[in-house]
Amino acid sequence: MTPILQSFPRRALTLKPGRGRIAALMTALGGLVFAGGISAWMAMAVVPPILTDWQVRETAEAAREARLVSGRCRARLFLFQDCDVTLSYTGKGQSVRREVHYVFVSPGRGNFTVQARVDPMQPQLLTTDLGIEHLINRTVTAGAFWLFGLAIGLGLLLAARRAMRDAGAVRALSGRPLAPAPAQFLGWGHGPSWTVRDEFGNAFTWPVRKRDRPFVLDPARGLVLTLREAPGSPAFPLDEKLRLVDLTDGERHQVLAARAAMGLAPRPG
Questions:
Q1: How far are the Cα atoms of 45, 123, 171 from residue 16, in angstroms, in the given order?
Q2: Ramachandran category for residue 74: left, alpha or beta (phi over 0 → left; psi -120 to 50 → alpha)
Q3: Does residue 266 surpass a pLDDT of 80?
Q4: Given 41, 161, 216, 221, which is the most exposed site by the fewest CB atoms within 10 A?
């Protein structure tokens, strides 16, 4: 372990966070797009037929003037039914054509017998017996989808905020004279990230990439190589290929040669 620590240059070093602001901003954008997409789909396709079906729930009835033009239900995971229905009504001097979209929970393959329903006083709100019978189900399902989209979107936004904060912490440590030090590797976290603990019991978590592997100093004791400004200050763990720190080719070769001399070859892959 000591030869590796001694081989490190003693100068100001630039650190490279495993995930920077660009990745964080892309994550935030993904969260907004996902939440916005779910909300737009709900607002345009799912919610309007639910609202109008509540209006005609008690008054819609079968009528020969109302008919089913086309309809198709697709089972998702044999649990969620996703239905597209086209309806028409011709009577009392007016002609109405309406397309409705249903999403509800019902185990099966999506095989339903459907009949058109119409409120004579509001023929523009054409519906079906399928929609009326599953109205509460559709309402609850729509609410669950909306909450799911909101939770995913907020989760991605929080992850982006955490990544930007971590990237800021790396920048604050970067550019200073840093010294190598061993630290206990506590494992992977969300994000992904690494958590290390120094000899004083202080734990530090830093963002990394999924393909990164820590620079192991002592496999038996779970010690990895970190850089820090002083004992007790934040310890930044390095990857086994030293990509997270800006070293010259000569400096990198010196550190890797010291590791090889100690028989601490990196894991394959």
A1: 45, 64, 8
A2: beta
A3: no
A4: 221
CA nearest 83: which of 114, 59, 61, 53?
114
The amino acid present at 130, given as its one-letter code, is L
First to last CA, the chain: 23
Residue 164 resides in a domain: no
Same domain, 198 and 133: no
> Contact, 89 vs 65, CB < 8 A?
yes
Q: How confident is the model at residue 64 (pLDDT cuts 50, 70, 90)?
A: confident
Q: Is 168 a member of any domain?
A: no
Are both 118 and 214 inside the same structural domain? no
Q: State pLDDT tens for residues 105-159.
A: 998 887 898 999 999 899 999 999 999 999 999 999 999 988 988 888 887 777 7
Question: Model pTM?
Answer: 0.64
- Give the number of domains in the chain: 2
Q: What is the mean pLDDT of the chain?
A: 87
Last residue of a domain, one of 118, 151, 184: 151
pLDDT cut 70: percent of the chain above it? 93
State the DSSP H helix or E strand holding residue 173, giving kind and residue range, or none if neither. Answer: helix 135-173
Asked if residue 224 is part of any domain, the answer here is: yes
Give the pLDDT confidence score for residue 269 in this predicted structure.
44
Rounded distance, CA 130 to CA 8, Å? Answer: 72
Residue 235 is encoded by which pair of tokens? 């310890």
Give kind and range of the element (H or E) at residue 122: strand 122-128
Q: What is the dihedral of CA 171, 177, 183, 186, to 10 degrees?
A: 0
Q: What residues are paired with 89 via a beta bridge?
A: 66, 96
Question: Could you list the residue range(s) of the whole structural domain that residue 199 is in?
Answer: 2-16+175-261
**The two structure tokens encoding residue 176:** 């200073």
Q: Kindly state whether residue 235 falls inside one of the protein's structural domains.
A: yes
pLDDT score at 32: 77
